[in-house]
Amino acid sequence: MARVVILGGGVSGHTAATFAAKWLGSSHEVVVVTPNAKWNWIPSNIWVGVGQMSKEEVTFDLDPVYKKAGITYKQAKAISLSPEGSASETQPFVTIEYTGQGKEGETEDVTYDYVVNATGPKLNFGATPGLGEGSELGEHTVSVCTADHAVHANEEFQKSIEKMKKGERQKFLIGTGHGMCTCQGAAFEYVFNIEHELNREGVRDLADIQWISNESFLGDFGIGGLHMKRGGYAASSRLFAESLYSERGVRWIIGAHVSKVEEGSVDYELLDGSTGSESFDFAMLIPPFAGVGLKAYGKDGSDITDTIFAPNGFMKVDANYAAGAYENWKASDWPRTYQNPTYSNMFACGIAFAPPHLISKPMSSPNGTPINPTPPRTGMPSGIIGKAVAHSVCDLITKGEGTHLHEASMAEMGAACVASAGKGLTTGTAAALTVYPVVPDFEKYPGLGRDLNYTFGEIGLAGHWIKHILHHMFIYKAQLKPGWTLIPE
Amino acid sequence: MIKKLVQYPDERIKITSADVRSFDDELLTLIENMKDTIEANELSELAAIQIAVPATVVIIKEGDDYLELINPRIIGTTGMQESAESTNYLPNISATLDRYDEIKVIYQDREGKQRSMDVAGELSKRIQRKIDYTFGGTFVDKLPKKEQKRVEKELEYGIVEGSGGTCPTISYRQYFTKAIKLLLSVMFLIVLSSLFITDPSTLSLLYSAELWMTGANVLFLIGYTLYAQYETSKFSSCTSCQTANTYGNVTFLGLALLVVWLLSYFIVNPS
What is the predicted pLDDT for the residue at A227? Predict the structure, then answer.
């Protein structure tokens, strides 16, 4: 009997674990190690953050689902990997520390035949002074990165609404809290949901809404922009985004690295090296992501973290990490199988794998501060990669070493994105966009690097309904209810 | 080398330009071609897509000098001012819109070195207009929706009206066909629902509604035919093919109406 250990129970890890359990059946063991007791459909956190959904609506308990699937569930966080075993253990193992199940603080070595690293990111609030400490959110701003953060964000948001109802003007600052952030899409959704709710509450006229982000143009979203077909040609998401921001009265600062956060104000540096500050009464700033800080040890106990992980803490996989300058970047630099090059029984998926380079054009200020979005690896690509990795691991177990691994390169994968701009059965809006491939392939598609035949973009009420349907559909799928395998990632 | 300018209705102008990745001889040739084209056409600025090259390059003529902006981005803005604009791409079209008074631009020079500048006034407006082109837009995209419709109409009809220009492909006659199709759908739904109704008084009521809708559709068909006749005579370039299309529509919709009416006569009619 082989044992597959999956570290992380987010979109990618949960997808990998549930498919692995289904394909392997009871003859092999699938273990999930995740510090969380609940699964969270993160895309809907923005609605929790404006009070349009409760935490319970976007989360569910993992334990009964894993029981049903025959998955061994350990509510714990992974501390280190020992891919060669140790002096006293011949099998490779992962050291975990329990965070629940009545064993809080206890550590355990879980041996494995295959390990899938799907830990997701560490929310690196500590990278910006004042934004937080380590992975802990600070006191000056709010976040929608977790369901608990979103609940807190809504509490603060409601306080602002109360103040406005008493005639007090409020300034909202929404965007990214560092020059190397990803997930502009979540901040984009949040700013327009805030705007929508303020309208609904009848206090929009007392609100100044300011966007701040590290994108060099509005609508970059960390993937160098999207393109929407218009009259047979593709229009840039910049046109769509600028028109939306103007229409909804949201001012913007872009090309910005937030360098410091204080009570009621942020300092920032722009791509031209100039600096500025912006005041706020309510701020939601997305933190940059880093690896969760997993360590790795050799058989003799030596630290081999640098062999397995990139300097940013994400796991090295079959990518070309020596691509060099922007003009040399190729689609083939991106990983296909997500197998660690040193240890073939180790895989990474979702945010946990180290991308070879950015997707957007790399930029920095004259002072050398890098200010550019880092590649998103969330949502649809994350699920697809998780499933492909699970497939590979299952084949390796059932067909033996040397079997062909399943591939899911982000340079050959499309992604659909539905970004909410306000919730409401008849008043909601969302932008529905598709992009193919996620990572531009400049050799295959000269110019923009994207196949414009698979490009679509539209904003409207139908988009909102789709987003709402997807919310229910993906939670249904994640709960492994009848027919869950038929729902795509 | 002087290049041909992309002009309406050439839709290549809507292509989003790609960032320049290699600062090589190809880029230098493009810059020289753009300058030659500016001189030959007495222009004051040009985006590469205006000579059908989808690269993010903007050249601005300043006196005898040129400002070369490779991969420009506007990262900061201050103030607003009205700007009366026209463009070589859309001859005879002009509009007034809001542009930022001062902008902060980052860009690369021909060697790939990143630079930045703060620009105000007329130069700011000229740069904004050209950067819009690199993202696949003209000043028309910046106009309010209503204004955009006006310009679209002017482009489709205005320039050519009375001069026997392009025959409109979208016009008011579509409202007639939409109304006919809507009524036909309602009539058909009544036929279907009557299969489950046995009460003669309800059926009688539904049948009279069917008759009224049949009458209305006949009137709409006549209206459509007459309006389409008027429209094709207004635009001398409307082809016989387009006229035939009108009659084709009338025949098709007329037959559909006949079928639905026959169905309602045999199914809905209680007598």
Answer: 74
Q: Does B114 touch chain A (CB under 8 A)?
A: yes
The pLDDT value given to residue B165: 45
In a domain, A258, yes or no: no
- Closest residue in B to A214 (Cα) is B75
Q: Return the higher-pLDDT residue of A378 and B125.
A: B125
Interface touch B116/A366, C-beta < 8 Å = yes
Q: Is the pLDDT of residue B166 over 60?
A: no
Q: Name the residue range of residue A41's domain.
A: 3-123+289-399
pLDDT in tens, B193-203: 888 888 888 88
Interface contact A327-B104, CB threshold 8 A: no
| Domain residue spans of chain B | 11-158, 173-268
pLDDT at position B239 over 70? no
Chain B CB contacts of A239 under 8 Å are 132, 135-137, 141
Write the pLDDT tens digit of every residue in A294-322: 999 999 999 999 999 999 899 999 999 99
pLDDT of residue B163: 38
3-class secondary structure per residue, chain A:
CCEEEEECCCHHHHHHHHHHHHHHHHHCEEEEEECCCEEECHHHHHHHCCCCCCHHHHEEEHHHHHHHHCCEEEEEEEEEEECCCCCCCCCCEEEEEECCCCCCCCEEEEECCEEEECCCCEECHHHCCCCEECCEECCCCECCCCHHHHHHHHHHHHHHHHHHHCCCCEEEEEEECCCCCCCHHHHHHHHHHHHHHHHHCCCHHHEEEEEECCCCCCCCCCCCCCEEEECCEEEEHHHHHHHHHHHCCEEEECCEEEEEEECCEEEEEECCCCEEEEECCEEEEECCEECCCCEEECCCCCECHHHHECCCCCECCCCCCCCCCHHHCCHHHCCCCCECCCCCCEEECHHHECCCCCCCCCCECCCCCECCCCCCCCHHHHHHHHHHHHHHHHHHHHHCCCCCCCCCCCCCCCEEEEEECCCCCCCCCEEEEEECCCCCCCCCCCCCCCCHHHCEEEEEHHHHHHHHHHHHHHHHHHCCCCCHHHCCC
Q: Is B144 on the interface with A (CB under 8 A)?
A: no
User: Is the CB of residue A275 less than 8 Å away from at least one CB of chain B?
Assistant: no
CB contact, 8 Å: A454 with chain B? Answer: no
Q: Which residues of B touch A229 (CB under 8 A)?
A: none
Residue B255 sits at the chain A interface (C-beta within 8 Å)? no
Q: Are A236 and B137 in contact (CB < 8 Å)?
A: yes
A444 and chain B in contact, CB less than 8 A: no
Residue A322 placed within a domain: yes
- Residues of chain A predicted below pLDDT 70: 228-234, 455-456
- Return the CATH number of the domain spanning residue range B11-158: 3.90.45.10
Residue A228 falls within a domain, yes or no? no
Instruction: Please state whether the predicted TM-score (pTM) of the whole model is above 0.90.
Output: no
Q: Which chain B positions have a beta carbon within 8 Å of A363's beta carbon?
A: 106, 114
Domain count, chain A: 1
Residue A325 sits in a domain of what CATH number? 3.50.50.100
Judge: B116–A272 Cβ closer than 8 Å, yes or no: yes
In-domain check, residue A186: no
